[in-house]
Design brief:
alpha/beta; Rossmann fold; N-terminal domain of TfIIb; 2 domains; 7-stranded mixed beta sheet; 4-stranded antiparallel beta sheet; 11 strands; globular
Length: 259
């Protein structure tokens, strides 16, 4: 996988994805509370967290509100600027630091053994393919403290596709309408999407933009194997981060790994 679509969507068409991220802020306090419970269960003394591919900071900021020292890393400057502004609005500017950077070089921005927890949230794997993700896992390990955690949470799993994909779906977010066209390549386990963005203007729809995505969709056992290849210990796999139910067939990817 070339990953060319990643830069096109998250940088070139960042306004499109910003609409989707902004809609997620309403559930961010609840999600951050669930992440806090996981951290407290497996590393009770954790204080410093890296939010890898943090977007515009919805999880980082709510973790900071809870008292964590949080660093957010994302390669989209627009997202990072928005996160910094929001951190000030939430009163956690002193507890957060937001950096423009590429997750594929994550260990070049930080010291060895710097973080108690590294968080990868909301399907932020599968952008560049297996070898790149495995390399990211190795790099994350270098900057995580001994006994520190690597949390891969709320990521879509291949099991969720077992019932097949509808060829077309849609989503309404405020005044925005997103139409999606889906194709799944079983040979490469790749979800190929076409997103079309429209905006309501009275009773009319105005076309705004479109984007194409090619996401490598992993089964849970594949991510487990990749993490073990990178010398992580798997300590738990969950079905739901809020209820802490154990994973089962059809679960999303919620993996707690320890260095």
């Amino acid at each position: 996988m070339s990953g060319d679509w990643v830069e096109e969507l998250f940088i070139g068409k960042s306004d499109m994805f910003l609409v989707m991220m902004n809609a997620m802020w309403s559930v961010a306090p609840r999600q951050a509370a669930a992440i806090d419970r996981i951290i407290r269960k497996y590393f009770p003394d954790a204080q410093k967290v890296l939010d890898l591919m943090c977007g515009n900071g919805r999880i980082s900021i709510h973790l900071a509100v809870m008292g964590y020292e949080v660093v957010g890393l994302d390669f989209c400057e627009k997202f990072i600027k928005d996160a910094r502004k929001r951190a000030a609005e939430y009163g956690v500017k002193s507890k957060t630091r937001f950096i423009v950077g590429d997750a594929r070089r994550v260990d070049t921005y930080f010291k060895e053994d710097e973080f108690d927890v590294v968080l990868n949230f909301w399907t932020s794997i599968g952008y560049y393919g297996d070898e790149t993700d495995r390399d990211i896992f190795r790099r994350v390990r270098r900057i995580t403290k001994p006994n520190g955690l690597f949390l891969i949470l709320n990521a879509v799993s291949r099991d969720a596709y077992a019932g097949g994909l509808k060829p077309r779906t849609y989503e309404v977010i405020g005044e925005n309408l997103f139409l999606y066209e889906h194709e799944f390549d079983v040979l490469t386990s790749t979800h190929k999407w076409r997103w079309m963005w429209y905006r309501y203007e009275g009773r009319d729809l105005r076309f705004v933009d479109e984007a194409a995505l090619e996401l490598r969709v992993y089964a849970i056992h594949e991510v487990v194997r990749m993490l073990r290849d990178a010398e992580w210990e798997i300590v738990d796999i969950l079905h739901d981060i809020e209820t802490m139910e154990k994973a089962r067939i059809g679960s999303p990817i919620n993996i707690i790994a320890k260095k």
